[in-house]
Amino acid sequence: MLNLKQFDVWFVTGSQHLYGEETLKQVDAHSQIIANFFDQAPQIPVRVVFKPVVKTPDEIYKICQEANVAPNCVGIITWMHTFSPAKMWIRGLSVLKKPLLHLHTQFNRDIPWAEIDMDFMNLNQSAHGDREFGFIMSRMRLNRKIVVGFWQESAVLSKIAAWARVAVGAYELKTMKVVRFGDNMRQVAVTDGDKVAAEMTFGVSVNTHGIGDLVAVINQIADAEVDQLVAEYADSYTLMASLQKGGAQHTSLRDAAKIELGLRAFLQDGGFTAYTDTFEDLHGMTQLPGIASQRLMASGYGFGGEGDWKTSAMVRTLKVMAAGLEGGNSFMEDYTYHFDPTNALVLGSHMLEICPSIAADKPSCEIHPLGIGGKADPVRLVFNAPAGPAINVSLIDMGNRFRLLVNEVEAVEVTEALPKLPVARALWKPYPDMQTGCAAWILAGGAHHTVYSQNLTTEHIEDFADMFNVELVVIDKNTNLRQLKNELRWSEAAYR
Asked: What is the pTM of this model?
């Protein structure tokens, strides 16, 4: 998976020449200390790079232009140590294409009551310098994240870290290539959408290759490569007896390995980081790519079933955001309900493709019949997801805009054996409760496919929505259906 330390955010401090060279030297020194502290902070996953203090419109414009084209810069953090007149920022902010975080802090935590004088006041003016800066961004209708607090506080570091992760995800999405093997499942609405609008909004490029192109690559995979991957399967998972060497279905395991190797080679050669397929269009393949899709997701690729390219792109994006965090992110589907009035639950699963990054324990590698697709029995990994907080994220095309939905959930331990359900699964309670959470999701048009994340939060998705200026609907402990209906009506008016 990605090492996020290859990416930078620039720390840019604003001031002006009014205060003299001595004050500007102190501003510069303080800014370097803060930038270096952020760069060394274990919470912040990217490099934080100090940039010299900007004091004129030309300097501001220059740094914004440089950030736009710097290949590893994913965003900038701005701070007004003194008073930086905001008209100086208009030209630079007008051309800035990278995400911006406005840090509202000051170098000193406490007021030095006995020593404070006007020299101190002239140097430490963030309380009103940042308000001047904030005004111009509001006046220009610019989205940004605002973080308030002393720069060494853990809460401040946590918010900066969340934004930095999202900035890397946004950077990834803007250059992402998604390949579709075939179209989306016939007659299905929510998995379809406007790929041109998606590229205009997010930058992601979505294009189709015939399944024959993939089959040709699969057929070129050498037996020695298959041998090596089958051995890896045996080391990594608990193999069903029939799949073991000498077992009656060992050939099916080799077929599955060959499909994984072919898929991986196709994606690598084409520069694709996400893909979709559909069981209705897999001519020439011996079985559906079950374990292949699961393992490709586990190594960082995005996947969406039945041609769902939007969810595929979001799986990849959230995996990039979460790089290095405990827990996983997976393609998911709300499959069936447990309507026990004292313990209502959603069973999340899919016919094959749930990412083992969310597994509670060592997965079992199994083979079972599949009633759809018309292929040989597919190999898949079977496991349970653990208990804990999670989110379900859905990106949908509303026709005139994209909408992001988040439902905060609480996953629970899978205590039943489920001996006849040979798929990976997760159980959760949606917030605020089963009835409200499900009704809210349906009211907002949420898809049946989602990205299930154990390690990201609503804050990450809110930052993402702000970076791309797309609508966000959050379903959490505070959701009220009457209020949500009004918010959806207001959104319709705002986007009309």
From this structure: 0.96
